[in-house]
Structures are given as C-alpha cells and as structure tokens.
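Quick start: read one record
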Amino acid sequence: MKVRHNVRAVLVDGGQLVFLRRGWPGGTTYYTTVGGGVEAEDADLEAALRREVMEEIGATIGPASEVLTLTEPGDKVTVYSTSFALKCWTWISTAVAALS
C-alpha cells in the first residue's frame, strides 16, 4: 500500500483564520487551509510546510507547532495529514499583490 504525507498550516491574521478559496468554473467553491504534499527533497514535515506556505500564499513562517495528525486509510493509498499552528508569518509583498 502506498503512503502519502501532507502538511497543513493553521494561519491566523489579525485574529482571523486564513483559508484558501478553491474551485473550478461551474463547480462548487470550497475552502481549505494552506498546505500540500510532502516531497522527497523536503528535509522534514516543517520544511515541507515552509515550502507549501511560500508556494501557495508567498509568505514566510516563524516557529510552527504540530497540533494534529489525521490518518485517512484507503484501499490503495493511506494519507497522513499533519497540521501545524502558526502565530508568526510574513507576507512577501509581490505575492500579496498577485493575490489582490
């Protein structure tokens, strides 16, 4: 059986949780936390988290605290999703402009 590892960032900005709005034209819109799959070149889960936050929202993060790991067993793939809480993060100005 294959195993896949994901990381998720629980980000807070000014007392508000940060979610990504996703969807496809004509499809249902949904919201998710920032994050994604752990890649072979990631040194560890936190390195994967830092890369995903930079890729998805163009931000750097401070210390991360692991808060939850969910296991989703499947017939062909088992997914382990680890969530981290982040109190300190910084937008990179060019990424913010692209998101606006």
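The mean pLDDT is 87.
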